[in-house]
Amino acid sequence: MNTPLKDYESINATIPPELNKRLTALAKDTARPKSFYIRQAIERYLDDLENQYKPHTVENKS
């Protein structure tokens, strides 16, 4: 399912050359854009971080 680009926001990030090389190779090998894998990685990692840190947010420290 493709989501129109208007439903996305653009960000910039600097990554090490080796990570970019791996990402580029994966995108090429699978015929998917690098942005697809970047979104997936951020979603998965953010889910983990939220689960880890949410109990420790300022609002929850009473």
Q: How would you describe this protein?
A:
The protein has 62 residues and is mainly α. It has a domain of 29 residues. 55% of the residues lie in helices and 0% in strands. The protein has two helices and no strands. The longest helix is centred in the C-terminal third of the chain and has 20 residues. The protein is extended. The chain starts with 16 loop residues before the first helix and ends in a 9-residue tail after the last helix. The mean pLDDT is 89. It comes from Moraxella caprae. This is Ribbon-helix-helix domain.
Note the topology.
Elements: H1 17-30, H2 34-53
| Number of distinct beta strands | 0
Number of distinct helices: 2
What form results from the Cα inertia axes?
extended
Mean pLDDT: 89
Distance between the termini: 43 Å
Helix % is: 40-55%
SSE order? HH
Cα-based radius of gyration, to the nearest Å: 16 Å
The residue ranges in which pLDDT falls below 50 over 5 or more consecutive positions are none
Structural class: mainly alpha
| Oligomeric assembly | single chain
The major pleated sheet works out as:
none
β-sheet strand percentage: under 5%
Domain Predicted DNA-binding protein ribbon-helix-helix: 9-47
Protein name: Ribbon-helix-helix domain
Pfam families: RHH_3
